[in-house]
Each structure stands twice: as C-alpha cells, then as structure tokens.
Amino acid sequence: MSRLEDRTENPGTIPAVFRSRVVLAGPGSSMTIPGIIASEITQALAQWAPVTRIQVDLDSDLTVGLHRAPSLAAAHEALRHLDIVRHQAPTNARLRAQAFKNWLGPDVGTAIAYAWPGINNAWIPQFVQIANAEGIRTIVACASLPKSNWANARMLAETMSHADLVVVGEVSDADELRAEYGSSGPTLDVHRALSLEGRSGQSSVQQITAFLPKDGSDSLATLLAAFDGIPEAGIEAFGLQVVMRYSGSEMPDMVSKSYHSSHVQLIGDDISALDLEKLVSTSSALSVVEPTYDSRAFSTAVECGIATVVLANSHLPEVGKGYVGGFLADQYRPASVNVAMSHALRLEQLGFPRPDAWEELAQLLNPTPHLVVRSFILREPTTHIE
C-alpha cells in the first residue's frame, strides 16, 4: 500500500469530498529561470484543473538586476487569462505554515512543490507535511541541473523524503536519490521537462551567433554597439558571428569599423539545415531579430535548448510561448541587447526544455484532471516544521 492509500483508505475517514484543485508552490519571480518554469508548469496544469499558484521567494536578492533582461515566455504568459488563484507566501516560517494550511483546503487533491537545487528550499518539508496531514497527494518536482550542481540536489533528499512522489529530469538523478532513500523513500519518476542538462560545458571562448534580416543595417549597428560594450580586458573570451544576407560593402564596412572587429565574423552565405544546426549547437548563446513562426533560426535554437535573445520593437514577437530559454531585448537599444546577451551567456551550460514538454509534465503530475472523489483522515493538530 502506498503512502497516499494509507492516508486515504483508512476506515476512520470522514465522508468523501470533491478534490479537483491542484496547488503548485515554488519560486515566483518571472525574472528567474526557476520562477519562469514554475509558471509554465502552472499554466499547463490550468488547462486541465483549477489551480492555485503559491509564490515562495525566500531569496529575493537573486533577482537583482534581472529586470533588465525580461523573459520571452513570461511576456507571453502575461497576456494569457487562465483562471489561476495566486498567493505570495510569507517569508516568516510560522506565518507561512498558517498560510499553507489555509490554502491547502478540502478541495485540494494534489499539492506540488517545485524545487531548484542551490536555492533556499527550506519551505518544502513544511508544505509537504501540511498537505500530508490533510490527506492530499504530495509531489516534489525537482529540476535536474548540470552535474557540477547535482551535489546540491543530493542535499534535497531529506527535504523531499516525505512526498508521495518525487519527479526529476534525469535517470541518473533518480538513481542517486533511490540510493539515498533505499526502500523507504517516495516513489521516483523522471520527466524531460525537469531536465536542464544536455549542453556541453563552458568553452574557453563564448561564441554569440546572431541572425539578422537581409541588409538590416539598423539591427547590425545595434548589435555591434552592444558587442563593443564588452570591456576590452575581457574581449578575448568572446566571439560574435553575424549571419545575414547582404549586398554591397556597407555591412562589411560596418563590421570593420567596430571597436571589436577582430572578434566579429560576418556570414553572408546561404546556410543548409544541417549547417544551421551545427552553427547553433556550437554557440554559447543566440540572438534573433523579430523571428516569425517560420524562423529556422529560432526553431533550431528551441530544438537545441540554447539561451536565445530576441531583438524586438514595441510588439511582442509571435514566437517563444513556453520556451523558458528566451529573453527579450530592444532592437534599438544596444545597452538592452548587451545586458540580455550577458544573461544568456551565464546560462550557457543549461539545455532548456521544448515548450511541448510542459503539457506532458502536467499530465504526469495530475493524471486525473477531472473531478475526483477522495477521503481524508481527521487528525489531531500537528506540530508543523518551521
């Protein structure tokens, strides 16, 4: 008998109630990758069930400066109007426990905590324990990061140990947790949406590849000015490839007159699909100007899971829904492009999931997205973790 069955099939239960609501708790800031991913999971769940989103941000300093490199996925999310109840969790542990108890009500069937190795996850045992006491199915979805960071995830083993189900992004991570838990731990599962592995380690030169429209002199001027903003003392660590079709000598002249021209390569030839994939997959970060739905460059970036800066004007690009590796920059402001590219380069080792992975994950986390009947046990008041 599973832990959940033990809690829900006890003869001493009160009458069954409808428990269709899903509660997802996790980082809330739309300026950080953990917060963006938690929002995408929430959006996917909301297609199937009523959802409550609890934003838990205990390390607010992690967002300093990131407002200058807004997320493309978050910008699209802001335009959606799904019926999602949102709460901000208190930073005080005692107040947070009371808030969790209020939000994990009798209509909740599944409680999900999103964990990110390396940040403050001290709230998760508290959240899981309160949900368990209410007879709610408990899940921890834990991001799988490049191996250099997995040591942090191993520290989460105890944090996640009382959940009914723990889902990670890599089989190797599940194996390590299984070794930690033995036969007494939670059920373990793996899903690709939680994996941010897959890209090679940081190279000696961080290669930026930019795709510009034909004869786009304005876009080229902005891009070169942004690249010239890199301090001269550190420029040896960077390279810029500009892919654009052009005629005449104007574009080569612009490149040759740029301050860091010796680190810029202008590619004007037509590129095959195979060469495009190789060019993208070997880059540290990408930049694309106002991509459309049929943009080969942007779709290849998504396939490769690479951090991509979209240069746009006042209109939100039509691409990027659900792609958490996309960032926005103003195509007429070099400083905006410089900041966004710097942020993308810091994420070089991460391989981002495809947008269609979120719906698959939602179906795993909430496999019965319709009204269900479940009983819960009447318990004496519990002393919660604080």
**Distance between the amino and carboxyl termini:** 29 Å
Main sheet characteristics: 7 strands, parallel
- The overall pLDDT, averaged over residues, is 86
Tally of distinct domains: 2
Strand content: 15-25%
Please supply descriptive tags for the structure shown above:
single chain; 386 residues; alpha/beta; Rossmann fold; 2 domains; seven-stranded parallel β-sheet; six-stranded parallel β-sheet; 14 helices; 33% helix; elongated
What is the strand and helix layout of this fold?
Elements: H1 3-8, E1 17-18, E2 21-26, H2 33-45, E3 51-55, H3 72-77, E4 84-88, H4 93-103, E5 108-115, H5 123-133, E6 137-142, H6 150-154, H7 157-160, E7 165-168, H8 171-181, E8 187-190, E9 206-211, H9 217-228, E10 238-243, H10 250-256, E11 264-267, H11 273-281, E12 285-289, H12 296-304, E13 308-312, E14 326-330, H13 334-346, H14 357-365, E15 373-374
Parallel strand pairs: 2-3, 2-5, 3-4, 5-6, 6-7, 7-8, 9-10, 9-12, 10-11, 12-13, 13-14
Antiparallel strand pairs: 1-15
